[in-house]
Amino acid sequence: MLSCPSLTRKFLTCGLTLAAVTLALAGCDRQSGQNAQPAASGGATEPAPTIDRSHKGSQLPNLTFHDAAGKDIHTATLIGKPLVINLWATWCAPCVAELPTLDTLAAKGDVRVLTVSQDTRGPEKIAAFLTAKGLSHLEAWLDPDGTAATQYQVTTLPASIYYDAQGHEVWRMTGGNDWTGPKAATLLAEAKP
Known about the structure:
Elements: H1 5-13, H2 18-27, E1 50-52, E2 64-66, E3 72-74, E4 83-88, H3 93-108, E5 112-117, H4 123-132, E6 141-142, H5 147-152, E7 159-163, E8 169-174, H6 182-188
Parallel strand pairs: 4-5, 5-6
Antiparallel strand pairs: 1-8, 2-3, 4-7, 7-8
Helix pairs in contact: 1-2
């Protein structure tokens, strides 16, 4: 059993759905002692990401996320360029470790990167977190109710869903990834004509 009582209280206090609680607990493996989650180091101790192509060809759903200024983004409006939707959280070590490589990918501009925090903290705190890490190409979108996690049936963070320019799913990835490495380049090339 996972030992994250403060996280559980936080989710229950906010009145989130059972699916969001399940997501938080499944991705949270902060235990004490020998089984403790390692710090966000990007080290080799993290398991390799897994790729799921079982949803290939599915249409991009119309999900809405919010930022600190109260601005909304609707995923259905993002068709026209390959898109990576990355679900992450500030308390998830593999998520934090992969953020710099997502920032580099976003800076290149070939692929739209939509990082969506699953934290229940306000969007202004997520924006401050990204700024403190020097991640200037990632926008601070927030999904505190876990709508995306429910839509994609995500139980572990980080999770990324990749769409081609026409809005058709190419694959899903669970686990941290080096988005600047050759394996990522090969995977991202799958959406190119």
